[in-house]
Design goal:
Blueprint: H1 2-27, H2 34-75, H3 79-95, H4 98-110, H5 117-141, H6 145-161, H7 165-177, H8 183-195, H9 201-207, H10 211-230, H11 249-283, H12 287-327, H13 333-346, H14 351-363, H15 370-393, H16 399-413, H17 419-431, H18 435-451, H19 464-504
Helix pairs in contact: 1-2, 1-13, 2-8, 2-11, 2-12, 3-5, 3-11, 4-5, 4-7, 5-8, 5-10, 6-10, 6-16, 7-10, 7-19, 10-17, 11-12, 12-18, 13-15, 13-18, 14-15, 14-17, 15-18, 15-19, 16-19, 17-19
Length: about 500
């Protein structure tokens, strides 16, 4: 029960800041229609309840499955088994990620089906599967992270030259959206399960990080390659008409329930099948363990349904409307302030961020406090959404002006900070863009893009998650550089002290 209470506190800290911001704006500069406000409050309640149950179910069911599968495929000592299983698992856990489905539906809706949601989910999941496999092989082969990231982003740079701005924005958004509440715990557990098999504990610590960051590059590559083959030309963007009216407030939720429940079942089905197969041929867990896992999967399903129902029922639509209304004001300052506030508040309690920061503190033996990691991430994400909004409002600022120097700096810094922080940083980039960023913040930015005459809804409306995924990488690497400097300073001070004591004797 205490675990469930802890999850509730995390989720409340994540959702309530957004709710408070919306209510303050409603009573000050941007009043909402009563039905829209009621729909938002109902959606917020469903998001809180659903996300709490969902995360609790992940801890009880999916995370242990990830750790056990990591151990199982490593014990096989057969690269063919490791490659085959990780390719399949990478595909299916990405396919089950709710944040990815939310983004894909947004892309489908905004582009009027030019880039179909299921096609996007499929190509992203393939990319995740391939890169996750390479990430696991990297752990087994002891390949340095900096070389993997240099190669991956060099390939992304080459593909970007031949890609349209539309697909560039969507691809980098996909990299952030696909590393959410399902994939992050599963990948971290998988990496920990494999790296724990190594005899060198110091190397094993560094290998516990980096898999999320490597896997997320697969999403970028998948979409960019798909964009080259689709040859659909310019993606035309238009926001869907608002669904919330006085007559449809409850109908909106009722009509979506069965469809969302079916989709949630289909997304989790491959993971369920994988667990059944591993249980039959490898795990052979006792009945009590199986019951605990099944209970966790059921809770994950129920939570996922409630979360998606809240998101699609009113939560995201209000984000879009607020973006439109703030962008239509005489000054853009309120829109920029709200953008920064959304970044500062939402990341502080993104569920996946807590998974990462706790693991960072544990693995570093408390030398890197989770509060410092949270502060660095909060500032970085606040700046990210501010930068994304500013890009829409100032036509001369293009997405590549952020991404090219940003990721370039991230790759360069990787050669000057400890490997542990390199993996930590690129993982942080993925986990910072969680459920709240992929839903409300993205909808808010798209609302701004829809209102600004000079903005393109596809090329400018997407790309925010990309910036959110980039800035934490740089922030954590700078934290690593500071940590390295302080460690060297302490070592030098200790050496001087020992020398003085020796001379004194």
């Amino acid at each position: 029960m205490s675990e469930l209470t802890g999850k509730l506190k995390e989720v409340l800290a994540s959702v309530l800041p957004i709710t408070v911001i919306v209510i303050i704006l409603h009573f000050t500069v941007s009043p909402l229609e009563p039905d829209m406000l009621y729909a938002f409050l109902i959606g917020s309640a469903l998001v809180i309840i659903g996300l709490t149950i969902f995360l609790f179910g992940i801890d009880q069911g999916l995370e242990p499955i990830g750790h056990d599968i990591g151990n199982a495929i490593t014990h096989s000592n057969r690269y063919a088994v490791i490659i085959t299983v990780s390719l399949i698992l990478g595909f299916f856990i990405s396919f089950a990620e709710p944040d990815l489905h939310i983004l894909a539906k947004q892309v489908d809706s905004v582009t009027s089906g030019q880039f179909n949601d299921m096609l996007m989910v499929a190509v992203v999941s393939v990319g995740i599967g391939v890169m996750m496999t390479l990430g696991l092989l990297r752990i087994l082969k002891n390949v340095r992270l900096k070389y993997v990231f240099t190669g991956a982003y060099a390939l992304i740079l080459i593909l970007s030259i031949f890609s349209s701005p539309d697909f560039l924005a969507i691809s980098f958004d996909a990299s952030g959206a696909t590393t959410g509440a399902i994939t992050v715990p599963f990948m971290l557990a998988l990496a920990a399960g494999i790296s724990a098999m190594k005899k060198d504990s110091r190397v094993s610590e560094a290998d516990s990080f980096g898999l999320v960051g490597i896997s997320s590059t697969g999403a970028i590559l998948g979409v960019l390659i798909a964009g080259l083959f689709l040859k659909s030309g310019k993606l035309n963007g238009a926001l869907p008409e608002p669904e919330i009216t006085s007559d449809s407030l409850w109908a909106v939720y009722g009509s979506k329930l069965l469809h969302i429940a079916w989709e949630a079942f289909l997304t989790l089905l491959p993971i369920i099948v994988a667990y059944i197969l591993f249980q039959i041929f490898s795990f052979k867990h006792k009945r009590s363990r199986v019951i605990d896992t099944v209970r966790g999967i059921i809770l994950t399903f129920v939570g996922l349904v409630l979360f998606l129902l809240g998101v699609n029922g009113g939560f995201m639509e209000v984000g879009t409307q607020l973006g439109i209304r703030l962008a239509s004001m005489d000054s853009y300052v309120p829109a920029l302030i709200v953008a920064a506030l959304l970044g500062l508040t939402t990341v502080l309690a993104e569920p996946a961020v807590h998974v990462l920061t706790n693991q960072v503190e544990d693995i570093t033996g408390g030398s890197v406090k989770r509060i410092f990691v949270l502060i660095f991430l909060s500032i970085a994400v606040g700046m990210s959404i501010l930068m994304a909004a500013l890009r829409i409002l100032v036509p001369s600022i293009k997405l590549w002006m952020y991404l090219l120097p940003g990721f370039g700096l991230a790759v360069v810094l990787a050669f000057f900070v400890p490997d542990l922080f390199v993996g930590m940083a690129f993982d942080a980039g993925g986990v910072a863009s969680g459920p709240m960023t992929a839903t409300f913040s993205l909808a808010f930015v798209q609302g701004i893009a829809a209102q600004v005459p000079t903005a393109d809804l596809v090329a400018d409306g997407f790309g925010m998650i990309a910036v959110v995924a980039m800035m934490p990488i740089i922030a954590i690497e700078l934290l690593g550089a500071l940590y390295q400097f302080q460690s060297r300073k302490a070592s030098n001070a200790a050496a001087v002290l020992n020398e003085q004591e020796g001379n004194h004797e």
